[in-house]
Prior knowledge:
Helix content: 10-25%
Order of helices and strands: EEEEHEEEEEEEEEEHH
Radius of gyration: 17 Å
Number of strands: 14
Number of helices: 3
Shape: globular
Amino acid sequence: MKVTDVAEIHGAYLFEPTPYADERGFFCRTFDADVVRSVGIDPDAFVQDSLSRSARGVLRGLHLRSGAGEAKLVRCSYGKVFDVVVDLRPHSPTYLNRGFFELSGETQATLYVPAGCAHGFQALTETADTSYRIDRPHDPAEDVTIAFDDPDLAVPWPLPPTSVSRRDREAPGLAEFLQRQKHEGSRDRRDG
């Protein structure tokens, strides 16, 4: 399994398996604790696996978690997705950078998204199954959404969205998120 640092997002990694293919199809390892550990990620930290199925054009995101955040491993197990990561960690050397990836069932590559980064994707095939392995149990009270079509982010979504959740359609823009983050940070310093 090959591991590549994601230059646009500090602390993000792309894990690319080496499939064994023959007349039956292919076989590959999609998670290897030793490989994950080799880049400083605790493989035992992941506590929940989830799966989403999306039709072509469905757009999900941009999502992140408040509080301690949420690190995740994301893989398109079937079909193909255009995947987006936005670094929203104020002290990160890649703060406000965006990373774009094509994840597919053909490659089975897995993207590690560090806590504090927003994540979203759009399905590029008629069916796209996306798997998530996250490092904290999901708590809906900590869900944060940023507008997928915010002009400050200018994400080049490849298709016109065919379906977007109400939460994603009504999400605030990046500027509002940053203002709220700044306000909460100054409040935390006063309270501490």
